[in-house]
Every structure is written in C-alpha cells, then in structure tokens.
Task: structure prediction
Amino acid sequence: MMEDRLQKIIASRGYCSRRRAEQFMLEGRVKVDGKTITELGSKFSTDCKIEINGKILLETTIKKYYIFYKPRCVVTTMFDPKKRKTVADFFKKEKIRLFPVGRLDYDVSGLLIMTNDGDFANYISHPRYNFNKTYQALCDGEVSKQQITNLLSGVIIEDNYKAKANAAKIISYDSKLNQSLISLTINEGHKHHVKNMLKSAFIELIKLKRTNIDILDLGNLKPGEFRSITKEELSKLFGKIKIQNIGEKQKWE
Result:
C-alpha cells in the first residue's frame, strides 16, 4: 500500500484542507492507530486508521463543490464556541461533511467555496496559483481617482508589506448619501487584506462583499443561498493550475 504525508491523506478523505489538517496535528487532535501524531512530515499508509477529535475519519469517493453566498454576521467555521451562526448552519441537510475554502471575515459577505475535497481546497487557496479574488466595497465619502491609483500602485499594510491591487475602479458615487461603491481585485490573502489596503489608502469602509473567485461569481444567488459548481467550471479551474488528476478517480456530484 502507498504511503503519503498524513496531512495529505486527511485532505484526500475530504475532512479539511492540508493546512487545516496540519493545524489539527500541531494541536494534538490527530491520532493514527491510536497514537497522537504531531510531526508534520510523518508518512503513513493511505488506508491507515485516522481519528480527529476522537472520531474515526472515513474516506468518501463523492466529492462536492459549491458556491455559497455567505451573509454578513456569519462565521466561516464549522463550529463556533460563541454560538454564533456559522456556514455549517446552511448545509445541515448535506449528508457529507463540507468545509469552507479559505475564509471571509464575520462582517464580510459574498462568495465562499464549500467542498469536501481537501486537495481542491489546497490548490485554490495556495498563493502560488494566483487565483484572483474580486471585492466590492461600499465606502463613506467620495473616493478619488488618486486613491484608486494608490491601490493599484501599492499601499503599505501590516509589517511594512506593500500590497497592490490587480484591478481597482470606482463603480458609482451617490451624492445624496455621500457614499462610493468601488471594486478591488487581489490575488493574495493576508489577514484583513482588503480592509487594511483601504485603510492605508484613507478610504473609509462601510461594507465589504466578495463577488468573484477567478471564473466563479455569485450570479443570481442571494445571501444564504448556494449552488453546485459545474463540471465545466471545475475543468477551467483545474486547467488554470495545470492539475490533470484531481477528480479523475472520484465520483463527481
């Protein structure tokens, strides 16, 4: 039987992404054949017995992929100790455990991918593949062309890091409300990345929504609704990252 790194086996069984699996391992929440494993480089047989939080991790051959319109004031986790509403609350009827790819802040709405394919989640969220993410920001006051230029040329955010927008533009300005609507596209994912960019450009944010991840968009979805990602969309995403084997040996739904 083949051997592989434990975090990759966990991801392939559809429990979470590799990065999340690594976090679980470091927290001492993962056991193989009854032994707690915290070493990230550990390799095991791909059919080994894995437990996470005391529950046996079974493999599934059915992979699911959804575009979810996350509402504001919803936590991008499957469980929240503060008892706030989570993304998991919208998928209670699903028999297969799903998890979010990446995250959106509690007060940010918009497009979130939900899946049980850990390898897919790993590739979509990995910075080397440069998947563009587009946001719409409702801002207080009239955003100037110079502020948009600053976002494109780069602004300093955390730890003196210079962040640039791939694209940015003013969509509209409401003179009565004195509010601007702008769009901003990035391919990075630092914590509070877009919020910090707007702050550094002296743009006062009111509300933020993610509208696109690469070719995926919200379409006609309303907050709290979701739809399956089509095979055609998946093929385009896989083609972009030049991964030909993901999904070939799996049953698609």
Notes: The CA atoms of residues 138 and 207 lie 5 Å apart.
